[in-house]
Write a structure and sequence with these properties.
By secondary structure, the chain is mainly alpha-helical. Helices cover 75% and strands 0% of the residues.
């Protein structure tokens, strides 16, 4: 459950970063702008891109871990069901067992 919450949180974070990013980064300054202004823009842009990449990679890793956990849980449940089925069949009385039919038979 914690992995699912983490995955959803990272996806929402990434979407919000996409939505807010254009206003946060702002327009590119003209090439004639002072170096300090250009450095500030590059810094904001780099941070924006880094946050997007971090959110996408993080949500991908968290979702892969969630899939792995779900697959292991499913495999464990399938093994338990098979064991119960085998134990149930082996404990059944001989008169309760249903023999498979060997051909088509007409109902009487």
């Amino acid at each position: 459950m914690k992995l699912r919450i983490l995955t959803i949180s990272l996806v929402v974070f990434t979407l919000l970063t996409f939505a807010i990013g254009a206003q946060w980064v702002g327009k590119a300054p003209p090439k004639t702008a002072p170096k300090q202004e250009l450095k500030a823009y590059v810094s904001r842009s780099s941070t924006f891109i880094g946050l997007i990449v971090l959110g996408i990679v993080g949500s991908g890793v968290a979702s892969l871990l969630e899939v792995r956990r779900s697959r292991e849980e499913y495999r464990r449940a399938a093994t338990e069901n098979l064991e119960q089925l085998v134990l149930g069949v082996s404990k059944a009385k001989p008169q309760d067992r249903v023999e498979p039919s060997t051909g088509s038979q007409e109902p009487t």
